[in-house]
Amino acid sequence: MDYRCYPCLAKAFTKLIEEHNISEDKSENLTREFFAHISSAPHGLIAPEVARMSQYKIKEILEVNDPYKEIKEKSNQYLLDKYDIFKNRIESSENKYDTAIRLAIAGNIIDYAANPEFDLDGTIDKVLKDTFAINDSLLLKEEISKAKNILYLADNAGEIVMDKLFIEHLNHPNITYVVRHAPVINDVTLDDVKQTGIDSFAKVITNGYDAPSTVLPKVSDEFKEAYNNADVIISKGQGNFEGLMNVDDNRIFFLMMVKCDVIGNRLNVNKGSFVVCRNK
Fold first, then answer.
1. Of 5, 81, 187, 213, which has the highest C-beta tally within 10 A?
2. Which pLDDT band, with edges at 50, 70 and 90, does 18 fall under?
3. Are residues 204 and 240 in the same domain?
4. pLDDT tens-digit series, residues 224-256
5. 189-223, pLDDT tens digit by residue?
6. Rounded to whole angstroms, how far apart are CA atoms 260 and 240?
7. Gyration radius (Cα) of the chain, Å
8. C-alpha dist (Å) from residue 197 to 66, 83, 173
9. What is the sign of the dihedral through the CA atoms of 45, 47, 52 and 58?
């Protein structure tokens, strides 16, 4: 894991400590305990696995199984309340596919780890106007048109609503939507599927693991089968990118907003850029 990833873990932890109204003295001790824990991570772990370690520690410290449960529910509901507005925006646009994929990427701003103080409405306006730093969206559209099976790797709560819009627009008969096996940060789980109803437009499975990513050596047999049978793999967000960026598989298309310099350097784009990037 890049040394620059540690501030993101610290920011997420600090935000949670503040929201749970823990006293200053206790917060200081818990912070020491938290940093000692993540500093003990074995050498060679990728960032999502260290994030997984950090989340286990946070759950232990706060004595809750899903510290982001309420935040996730609010994020989902906020965007569900705007669903018809966004759907009408897609339907009334000259290029429906382009608008739908841009809204899907805009939803990626909802991230309580790398970017807890995001501006969703501002990001939506920006992504609908901006030129993408990497834009393989037409290539993705072509591959989707030929695909028998599509695997769609989910990222964050709230963002799932924008995924639902995109998947509804694609109207493909065989899309499998993949969520995390258990709560981790504000990543999508089966609870978010129930709240948003995305299972009306796609088959839903978990990946069998609870890192905020797709870590192929750790996934379930069910996921492996879906992965192996996919003709196109749509990977949302930085977390999934970090788990798959070294995988040699050109079926994968990464859709995300670049939220840090580590990933920006990897893709040779600026922080804050929007990308639709085929895995090379």
1. 187
2. confident
3. yes
4. 999 999 999 999 999 999 999 999 999 999 999
5. 999 999 999 999 999 999 999 999 999 999 999 99
6. 14
7. 18
8. 21, 12, 17
9. positive
pTM listed for this prediction? 0.90
The answer to whether residue 127 scores a pLDDT higher than 70 is: yes
Could you read off the pLDDT of 45-69 as tens digits, one per residue?
788 888 888 888 888 888 888 988 9
* Pairwise CA distance, residues 44 & 99, whole Å: 39
Regarding whether 102 and 40 lie in a shared domain, the answer is no
Determine the 3-state secondary structure of 156 from DSSP: strand
Dist. CA 114–CA 30, nearest whole Å: 20
State the Cα–Cα distance between residues 251 and 244, nearest whole angstrom: 11
| Size (the chain), residues | 280
Written as one letter, the residue type at 40 is S
Indicate whether 152 and 91 sit together in one domain: yes
Alpha helices by DSSP H, listed for the chain, are 6-19, 24-39, 47-62, 69-80, 83-91, 96-106, 120-129, 137-146, 159-170, 190-196, 221-229, 237-244, 261-267
The DSSP letter of residue 213 is S
The pLDDT value recorded for residue 193 is 97
Domain shared by 119 and 11, yes or no: no
On whether both 249 and 160 belong to a single domain, the answer is yes
Domain extent for 50: 3-62
205, 180 contact by CB (below 8 A): no
Residues 58, 137: one domain? no
Q: For residue 252, report the phi and psi dihedrals to the nearest 5 degrees.
A: -85, 130
Return d(Cα 154, Cα 169) in angstroms, integer: 17
- Tell me, yes or no, whether 56 and 79 share the same domain: no
